[in-house]
Amino acid sequence: MAPEEMQHEPEELQEEETEYIEEQSSRDRVSTILTVAIFVVVLGVLTVVGYAVVAGWLNPPAPRTVGEATLVAAQAAVAANPSDGGAWQAYITSLMAANQNAKAAQAIAMAQKAVKDESITSVNVAVVQYLASQGKFDQALQTANAAITKDLAFRQAELKNLRANGVLAAESMIPADHLIKLYVLKSQLLDRQKKYDDAVASLTAALQYDQQASDVMTSRGYIYLEMGRKADAKKDFQNALKFIPDYAPALSGLKKAGE
Amino acid sequence: MVDENNPQVSEDEDVEYVDTMVVEYVDNRRRRTLLAIILLILVLLLVGLGWYLTVLTKPYDQPNSGSLPPGLNWVRSIYGWGKTPNTLLNAPQNTAIGPNGTIWSTTNGTMLVGFNPDGSAAHVVSPPFGPGLKHVLKVAGVAVAPNGEVYVADYGRHVVEVYNSNGQLVREWPTENPPTGIAVRNGRVAVTDFKSITIYDPTGHKIVSWGSRGSGPDQVDLPQGVVIGSDNTVYVSDTQNARVTAFSPNGRVLWSIGGRTPGLMASNSPTDTQHPFALPSGITIDGQGHLAVVDPFQFKVFFLDPAQKGKVIASYGDFGQQDGWFAYPSGISYDPTRDWFAIADTANNRLQIIRFPNTGSNGLLSAASRLTVGPVWICAIPLILLLLAAVAFFLSRRRKSEEEAQPPAPTSGDASVNDVAENAAELPGEEAGASSAGVSDDE
């Protein structure tokens, strides 16, 4: 190696070192920025979690909407009277409305154990609604049929009991709200299967227990419309309007029947 | 580095030096990649967390603007301070908002509950209050003074009770008749009863009283709402007469709007500008100086302009059970800081925090105030940590800069071997070796 070259070498090396150090320094800056960004994001995550916990977002201390308030009230009603089928029905329905289907299923199981009297019909209404909401239509229909049979048996036993106690009881004296609801649900399930005659029969059975039920008449009117029986449909809509003069679904149905 | 006697050693050192550089480069690159991945994961976590909290913790039936009556902006509903039946609001009839934003409400007619602006419970005032203290029998009205004292018109005991902002009874005074409404402003306490209006000072000394029961222009019939204007004008929601009347501070009638038309109590139409009310109840003043009157039978809040003798300038609301709708609302109060109203939605057993258009006087400040409801203090903790970290970072940078700014060691001519050796010792291995070699060459 020539002496001139040997003299130049340290300078070149120094330049290389300087470049290397500058490069390293630049890389260090990137690492520092990344570290700071991680630190900031970690703080952000902790802040969001802390805020959510302190503000009660994860478990609100009180209801915030009408749905949550209804659910709380229904839960309290069940706790106050665990053998009341009506309370269970309201609770299960509220859970379903809140999309808490797993809890609804649990509540159904608990209700079926806790309710022993005829108010089990209320629970059965909720069960049919639950099964239908889960897309288990056949099972829902079977449950509806079984529940109707059971409730009719309850009613006969109650009637017999009243008469045995000297009460001149008629079947119409025994409330049938939930039985009617079951018939309506059954008709909806049959309608879905396009078994229109059976659906109409179910609603006709419901009307035996309340001949002023405008909603039931209107439902039957709509099934008649599907069957092409416009005259029967019109009659049902008109009858419904006798009891609720401005009942919007009946008015709408009447318009369709007239077309 | 250049060694005339042994060039092989010098080349080995160079190779070692380059190897070290490569290793360092790879290490640094690996570290940066790792940091970038961690950052990405954390950002995704933050975004996911934000999504989870804003979407999944949102109530499933929270109303959106399309499902509300026109012009009404629902902020939140308050159903109670717990999840048990006795901690849920029951037929709240009156509300009042304190200077710090505390929303006071009556429940069961006998209890007072104070809520924070975010809806969480702040105070529950319920009987028994303590040894020797009496308790509220029937709350007919509630108002808050600028110092935070809560004034309660107790219909059952015929008294005005004053509680401090912590809900402790501090004083009370008797009223001539069972009070039906109360308002506090400018050191004056206006109390209504079934036939008259009385103005007291804050300690209960009567200043002036006027009125008699009837439907005449200067009479009242069971007024259930009262509010004092900035000029001490007294605005009375004359409930049974279905009108709102403005009285001068001494009881002279200034103007009146509404009145009962022949027929049923609720036959007045809300669109009838002369007789809009069916049963005006709570009344308050918004940030624009307009009166807001809630009518339980019309399910509406009416806005009146006192400068136009009470002309109805707007009305909002309708009947319904969903949030944002009303069922026999009977009390109303206004928070000027946040530009929102607390409405006692009586038959729906809730308070509703609602905003209406054109009611505030300080838009941006109100918006900022609304954003800061809730436990915002928690945000101070990371901010302090961030600040401390920034200070530590800049201090370390400064020290490093100072160290680097020290004059470089002499590398030729006048530098002694010892000096160079010392400087070389401060450098990492190879660099120190290279410097030493350089000095040797010069020598």
Tell me what you see in this structure.
The complex is a heterodimer of chains A (259) and B (443). With 259 residues, chain A is an all-alpha fold. Chain A is 79% helix and 0% strand. Chain A has 11 helices and no strands. Chain A has helices at residues 3-54, 66-80, 85-97, 101-114, 120-133, 137-164, 177-192, 196-209, 214-227, 230-243, 248-258. Chain A is elongated, with a radius of gyration of 35 Å. The model of chain A has no long low-confidence stretch (mean pLDDT 88). Chain B folds into 2 domains: 1-58; 70-374, Neuraminidase. Chain B contains 5 helices and 24 strands. Chain B has helices at 7-56, 363-371, 380-405, 417-426, 429-442, and strands at residues 73-78, 95-97, 103-107, 111-115, 121-125, 139-144, 150-154, 159-163, 169-174, 179-185, 188-193, 197-200, 206-210, 225-228, 234-238, 243-247, 253-258, 283-285, 291-295, 300-305, 311-316, 329-335, 340-345, 350-355. In chain B, a hairpin with a 5-residue loop joins strand 2 and strand 3. Mean pLDDT of chain B is 84; it is low at 127-133 and 413-443. Classes of the chains: A mainly alpha (259), B alpha+beta (443). Chains A and B meet through helix 1 and helix 2 of A and helix 1, strand 1, helix 3 and helix 5 of B.
CATH superfamily of the largest domain in chain B: TolB, C-terminal domain
Oligomer class: heterodimer
Low-confidence stretches of chain A: none
Number of domains of chain B: 2
β-sheet strand percentage of chain A: under 5%
Q: Profile the largest sheet of chain B.
A: 4 strands, antiparallel
Which CATH architecture of the largest domain in chain B would you pick? 6 Propeller
Number of strands of chain A: 0
Q: What's the mean pLDDT score of chain A? A: 88
CATH topology of the largest domain in chain B: Neuraminidase
Structural class of the helix and strand makeup of chain A?
A: mainly alpha
Rg of chain A (C-alpha, Å): 35 Å
